[in-house]
Amino acid sequence: MLAYPQIDPVALSLGPIQIHWYGLMYLIGIGGAWWLASRRVNAFDPSWNSEKLSDLVFWVALGVIAGGRVGYILFYDLASYLNDPTLIFQVWKGGMSFHGGLLGVLLAVWWFARRNGKRFFEVMDFAAPMVPIGLGAGRIGNFINAELWGKATDLPWAMVFPTDPLQLARHPSQLYQFAMEGVALFIILWLYSAKPRPTMAVSGLFGVCYGIFRFLAEFVREPDAHLGYLAFGWVTMGQVLSLPMILIGAAMMAWAYRNGGVKRETVS
Which parts form a coiled-coil structure per UniProt (predicted)? Predict the structure, then answer.
């Protein structure tokens, strides 16, 4: 068994102000995606300047944060937030939903594309390879917060998390998700999008791969205590929300290649 590193969730205290690692992970994710997007933007559209890219990053970041928070409330813990609405603003404690964040990003990209004369999936295909940076950073934030841990196991890399009332040795599922949703997904999308693809194909591949990775991770991740398993003694809310992503993503890729799409310029 490995010892949990006991990282203080508060990265820096300045008097009454506390800066949490969880929030810093979001800044790292957004900043990293911004930097990589700036390296690819000329191949995507040479007419775009830094201001245009900054606008896109701003709207996407807003979609991630607002959508992630609202999605968590609606999908995972509506009763608690109805009982105490002030919990909505306590984002440093966690409580973000990827699927809600994705819906927020879709709305943000739709708004941005409409304002800038771009097609929706053109912008989504450009942005998708950068998303895993934020996903990976977010999972590290979950690990530091000692939240969303896995099921009990006797594997040699199991950990006892300080927030676990049962103090069982568990899968460090946050690190599994970091490896899959962050590292592996980034490599897959980055390499795939380095060559011209039909419009919608990159976005579709993101949906397929993320959905599969999340579906698999749910088998070793402890379900939310207030939700438990939704069916058959193993189906979780995360799997219910991920399955449509796999199916829709596969349909998008099939549509893109069957109809030829519009070949995107290489962004390598």
Answer: none
